[in-house]
Amino acid sequence: EFSVARPTAVETAPVEPVFEGNNDIWLEKLPLELRYRIRIDEPMSAHTTYKVGGPADYFFAARSVDDCRHILAAVEAVEIPMIVAGLGSNMLVSDRGFRGLILNIGADWTGIEKLNIEQVAKRYGLSADKIRAELELLGRGDYPGDLGSDPVFLIAQAGTPLVDVAAFARARDLAGLEFACGIPGSVGGAAIMNAGAYGGSIEQTALFSVSLNRKGELYLTGAGDRPFSYRSSHFKNAGAIVTEVAFVVRPGDPELIRSRTENFTQRRNRSQPLDLPSAGSVFKRPRNDCYVGPMIDNCGLKGLRVGDAQVSEKHANFIVNVGAATAADIRNLIALVKKRVFEEYGEVLEPEICFIGDFDAE
Asked: Domain for residue 10, yes or no?
């Protein structure tokens, strides 16, 4: 049962204090069952798509909102820095690791439910009329199109891979999530970053999102709250933990859904280096009409390497690990690409990737 409220303002994420590490006192504040699930000095190379990253002092894979609340209360009491991570598809962890706790919302917290409008209303304590009003405010533009009089809702838990939600919809002839068929990462991470591809994005199909603030309070955020922006969101700015997302889809033509999915998959396979570890697109577009890959390519940077980090020969806005790259290799190559593009075009590129840990000492 949800205890939800609508926030009236975006909260500010707390400033993380300096933490010396290896201070296990905070563990005593956890229930015994959770204490046993804490991993010490967990190598983050096992939890990122780049396959790099040093050890986190503590690593905890959450399974529920209650798990998160216990963790949040414990780390706040001792002022331990904490980072929330999903499937590690959009982050680069320092070779020195992270001095604090990685709270993982991933494989231990998954699930997808198919509900109708009355079931969604009951779940979130809203009227069906209120949900219909939110549907009118959904920022979907021309995608997924007319929802009709009987929309379908897919409630996905935060750790569920987004591709699994797209596959779930496709298997049931539901349209609207074809764009997500190849986007790596979890539902929670996709909502926080407003992930998108091929003209579709999370903001166009996420009707409701449930999130947890650092005080352990749950919020229900609807489309009318306009929580999303380009590759960002209210949740990211507030330091919130997304726990589930209600996607709205519609019954569609099975052949058209299959065709769209195959088209997106083929385009992705042709243009992206899916055979090598990466974090997807490295840089955001400076503007809607400004594509980063061609700019990097025109600077002659395809194939450029720092150690075993390389600007992909296939897509210049991807930096790949071609062997034994370190996080420092990747970070230094990102900085080099950013510098060269600025010199050539005067554009300041902003990374999509989140940098975790201390890179200054590397």
From this structure: no
Give catalytic status of residue 344 as yes or no: no
- Given the residues 231, 250, 285, 331, select the one marked as catalytic: 231
Q: Which residues contact 330 (CB under 8 A, 6 or more apart)?
A: 50, 52, 92, 306, 309, 319, 321
Choice among 89, 233, 281, 312 that is catalytic: 281
Q: Which domain holds residue 90?
A: 24-104
Write down which residue in 54, 74, 104 finishes a domain: 104
The CATH number of residue 92's host domain is 3.30.43.10
Average pLDDT estimate for 120-140: 88
Number of domains in the chain: 3
Does 231 participate in catalysis according to the annotation? yes
The whole-number pLDDT of residue 276 equals 97
Kindly report, residue by residue over 330-346, the tens digit of the pLDDT: 999 999 999 999 999 99
Q: What is the largest CA-CA distance in the chain?
A: 58
Distance in angstroms (rounded) separating the CA atoms of residues 40 and 38: 7
What confidence tier does 250 reach under pLDDT thresholds 50, 70, 90? very high
Q: Is residue 281 flagged as an active site residue? A: yes
